[in-house]
């Protein structure tokens, strides 16, 4: 989530009870977004089976959402500054609800992919306003309690999303199969829209920056030129135009940097504040967030396909198998922020990367040793180890990255952190076609073994994830040894509280 500038409205009043209704509404919206991301992947095999979706379409059902979300995050925050956070939030939650209905009513995979892209774009309008509305609604002495509640919501979404997705898929309500995972958003979204229009107080930034539509267009174009060939290349036989497109993406990103530099000098309102990259810890942190997003994007989609298609497990069994992971993430995240980081600093995050890599390596060993007969309880050990490692990283990472950023740029920096994490996630989902499906194709062609090929692909993909964790460990040496809390800047730009990466898929 992004924080934006200080609201123009008068300071929040502690005695106004309406603020708690507003909090419940925006937190419900945040929960809906978190659950929507985690709920979908568990139902992906069912969607693939019932709709006859290709593997590239499966990737785009998840990657399309992440791409649209990433491309629109900063713009969504700016729109809230300019036109009012309440107004943009209501537009976002209304559009998200409509897009959810279109997903649930999709008549073919193409419509579902398009609806997911729209859903991601609407989430980009809705999500950045949540913590900004909290900042505008609650006085400083109450925000610690509120942010604690937000952390609990993140943990609850991580645990409940996969289980809810598994149950709704297994129950096959009214013969709708996987569709209720999207349609469940309708009553929640409509209630949020009606109650939000009544209880949320409007706020704007006193000096809102202009929209950088050219920057958004260049970012989106560059990512599409990179991701589309990655997801379709395997099916199309890796044509020449795909390599040209991926190389052209680098040119587009170079043009983006040049344009943002000129725009910053011209009107001071670029999409990307390039001066932030002069701060070593921030530049390294952006790299960590991007690479971490790639690793998560690869793992969660591959993990779901491995359990449900490769091992033939039901959605419910796959969802229950992931519970130890979710619990481990939540517990380790709480310990990391409250006990470990204040005492040991950066070493906690680096330990998290190594612990997560160890869990991945254990998983690779188990998948090879037990093959098709592997049981859920045997997966518990590597999942708990991975969850502990991830929990040690995700909670304190944003503060570590922002600790040396000038206070006046905290809002822009927070938005950029969350944007690149989502972009990394989309890139990881695109790479699944190479590190997972490519291995499956080779295995099937050489041995003709269907389900067993998924185990080989899973091990190969996890090898990449382990390598990613090693890269993250090295990049973290550039983070401050003792991340400082942004206490002084909390009033103007409490950006250190951002949206955590999607924990479970």
UniProtKB/TrEMBL annotation:
GO biological process: response to antibiotic
Keyword Transmembrane (UniProt): yes
Record's GO cellular component terms: plasma membrane
Keywords: Antibiotic resistance, Cell membrane, Membrane, Transmembrane, Transmembrane helix, Transport
Residue intervals of the Major facilitator superfamily (MFS) profile domain: 22-482
MF (Gene Ontology): transmembrane transporter activity
Statement: the UniProt record of this protein carries the keyword Cell membrane: yes
A Pfam family of this chain: MFS_1
Origin superkingdom: Bacteria
Chain segments annotated as transmembrane: 20-44, 56-76, 88-107, 113-134, 146-168, 180-199, 211-228, 240-260, 281-306, 318-341, 348-365, 377-402, 423-440, 460-479
SUPFAM superfamilies hit by this protein: MFS general substrate transporter
Places the protein is found: Cell membrane
Topology in the lipid bilayer: Multi-pass membrane protein
UniProt protein name: EmrB/QacA subfamily drug resistance transporter
């Amino acid at each position: 989530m992004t924080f934006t500038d200080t609201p123009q409205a008068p300071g929040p009043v502690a005695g106004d009870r309406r603020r708690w209704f507003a909090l419940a509404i925006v937190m419900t919206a945040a929960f809906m977004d978190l659950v929507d991301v985690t709920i979908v992947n568990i139902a992906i095999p069912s969607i693939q089976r019932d709709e006859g979706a290709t593997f590239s379409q499966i990737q785009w059902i998840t990657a399309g959402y992440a791409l649209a979300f990433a491309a629109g995050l900063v713009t969504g925050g700016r729109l809230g500054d300019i036109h009012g956070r309440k107004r943009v939030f209501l537009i976002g939650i209304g559009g998200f609800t409509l897009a959810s209905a279109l997903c649930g009513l999709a008549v073919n995979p193409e419509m579902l992919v398009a609806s997911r892209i729209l859903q991601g774009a609407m989430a980009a309008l809705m999500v950045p306003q949540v913590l900004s509305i909290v900042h505008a609604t609650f006085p400083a002495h109450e925000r610690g309690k509120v942010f604690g509640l937000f952390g609990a919501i993140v943990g609850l979404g991580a645990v409940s999303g996969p289980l809810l997705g598994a149950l709704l898929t297994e129950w096959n309500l009214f013969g709708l199969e996987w569709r209720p995972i999207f349609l469940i958003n309708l009553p929640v979204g409509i209630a949020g829209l009606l109650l939000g229009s009544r209880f949320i107080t409007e706020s704007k930034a006193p000096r809102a920056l202009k929209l950088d539509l050219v920057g958004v267009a260049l970012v989106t174009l560059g990512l599409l030129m990179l991701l589309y060939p990655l997801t379709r290349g395997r099916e199309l036989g890796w044509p020449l135009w795909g390599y040209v497109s991926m190389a052209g993406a680098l040119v587009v990103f170079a043009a983006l940097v040049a344009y943002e530099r000129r725009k910053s000098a011209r009107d001071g309102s670029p999409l990307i504040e390039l001066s932030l990259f002069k701060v070593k810890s921030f530049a390294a942190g952006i790299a960590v967030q991007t690479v971490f997003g790639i690793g998560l994007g690869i793992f969660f989609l591959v993990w779901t396909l491995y359990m449900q298609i490769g091992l033939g497990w039901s959605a419910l069994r796959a969802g229950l198998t992931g519970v130890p992971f979710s619990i481990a993430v939540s517990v380790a995240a709480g310990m990391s922020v409250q006990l470990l980081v204040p005492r040991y600093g950066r070493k906690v995050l680096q330990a998290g990367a190594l612990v997560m890599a160890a869990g991945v390596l254990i998983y690779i060993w188990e998948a090879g040793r037990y093959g098709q007969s592997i049981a859920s309880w045997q997966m518990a050990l590597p999942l708990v180890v991975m969850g502990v490692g991830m929990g040690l990283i995700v909670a304190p990472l944003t503060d570590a990255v922002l600790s040396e950023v000038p206070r006046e740029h905290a809002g822009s920096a927070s938005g950029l952190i969350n944007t690149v994490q989502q972009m990394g996630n989309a890139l990881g989902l695109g790479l699944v076609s190479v590190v997972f499906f490519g291995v499956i194709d080779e295995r099937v062609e050489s041995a003709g073994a269907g389900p067993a090929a998924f185990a080989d692909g899973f091990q190969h993909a996890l090898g990449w994830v382990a390598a990613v964790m090693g890269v993250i460990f090295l990049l973290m040496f550039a983070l401050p040894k003792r991340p400082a809390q942004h206490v002084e800047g909390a009033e103007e730009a409490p950006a250190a509280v951002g949206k955590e990466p999607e924990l479970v898929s």
